[in-house]
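Notes from the 1:1 (GR / supervisor)

We went over the backlog. Supervisor wanted to see one worked example end to end before approving the batch request, so GR pasted a single chain during the call. The sequence is below; no edits were made to it. Supervisor asked that the structure be written out right there so they could see what the output format looks like.
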Amino acid sequence: MMEMSKKKSTSELEEILGKTHPNDIGEFITDNKDSLLDSDRPFYDYYRNLVKAKKLKLQDIFLQADITENYGYKLVSEEKRTRQRDVIIRLLYSGMCTLEEAQEGLKIYGMPQLYAKIPRDALLMVCFNERPGSVIDVNSYLSKNKMEPLRNSGLQE
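Structure output shown during the call:
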């Protein structure tokens, strides 16, 4: 019998789905309940668990991300949604996410993941891997390479 408590990765779930008939989706959901996002606020659950595991405080993350506390809480709790991917990247970077965690966070939020063939995304991927400093440092690297810095809200040009 398979171990039920181990969470499966997205790729493991996709492999199982590749062999699943539409009539068997109920069984898939039951068998993989621990690995599926079943919340009505999946980003909130994902991000809260990451922050908790890293022993970080949301206030400190918002400060690092240069996002107001009020707006930050509304974004994380999904009370407010943003279409600005840079804002979510700021939250993920300031939350000390690895590249893999950031990619998962973007996907859960409904944003495009960082894509290695896009030069700006490639530089951001390197920054997630190498951790050159704060969001300000990341923006400095972006500017040095004649790329748009990470925006922090809809108010900036």
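Supervisor's comment: The first helix runs from residue 10 to 17.
Batch request approved.
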